[in-house]
Amino acid sequence: MVKIVSACISVLFCSHLLASQLTIIIDDVGNSARDIELLELHPSITLSVLPSSPYAKEIAELAQQQQREVMLHLPMQGSGEIALGPYGLNDHLDEGSFKQRVQAAINDYPEATGLNNHMGSQLTQLPTEMHWLMQVLAKQQLFFVDSRTHLASIGNKVASHYQVPNLRRHVFLDHQDNPAAIEKQWQQAIIIARKYGHAVLIAHPRPHSVNQLAKLALPEDVQLVGVAQRLALNNIPKTETPLLQLVDATSIQSAEDIETSTY
After folding, report:
1. Mean pLDDT of 36-53
2. What single-letter DSSP state applies at residue 187?
3. Which residues pair with 61 in a beta bridge?
C-alpha cells in the first residue's frame, strides 16, 4: 500500500465525504519569494513545487512542517523549445538518464508524495517515456497527477498499468489571468464536482488566483480534499452495497475539453 494512503485512511468513512469533492493544486511554486505566502492558504490545498526554482526547497520544507501536501511539478517536453532545467524530461534521454533525473528530483525533495507534469504536451503522449516514469513512481510509491496539457496524454493509462495511484486535471483556474475568467473557471470546477462527485482544479501563484483561493467560497455541498485523501478514497475496496456513491473522476470526458494547453 502506498504511503499516501495510510496517512488518510482514518478519515474515509466520515459522513462528510458523501459531499462532492474538489481537489486544488497550485503549480509553479518556488519561482518567487512571494510564493511563501501560499502557506497561508487552506491546509488542504496542495503545493506543487518546481524542483529547480530558487524558493522551492524552502517552501517544501515549510509546507511539510504544516503537514501540507507537497508535490513535484516536474518539467517535461512540451511543444516548444523551452529550457527544462536539470530535472527536465525529454525524448532525447536514454532510459538510464531519464530515470536518473526523475530519481534525483525525488531524492532532493523527500517532502513530495507525488508529482505532476510541468508542460509535457509532447512527452505525456510517448509510451516509452511514460513507462519509464511510472516504473520509477511505482518503485518509490509516489502518485501521479496528469496536468492534461494535451488531450492525447496517456499518463493516467500508463500509471494505472503500474498501479501508480493517479488523478487528472479537469479545470485550469487561471488559463486567462483576469478576475472574471477566474471566477468563471471556479464555478466550472464546482459544477463538475457536483456532477461527477470530484474535480481536480489546477491554479498558479498569480495574484488574482491567490485572491480567489484565499476566499475559498465553497458551497456547503462541496468539500475540499487533498490529492492523497481522494486517492485513498479511490482505493477503498468495493462492496455489494457501496457506502459512497461517487463517480470515479477518471470517467469524466467532457470536462477534459474545457481548456487544454499545448505547452
Report:
1. 98
2. H
3. none
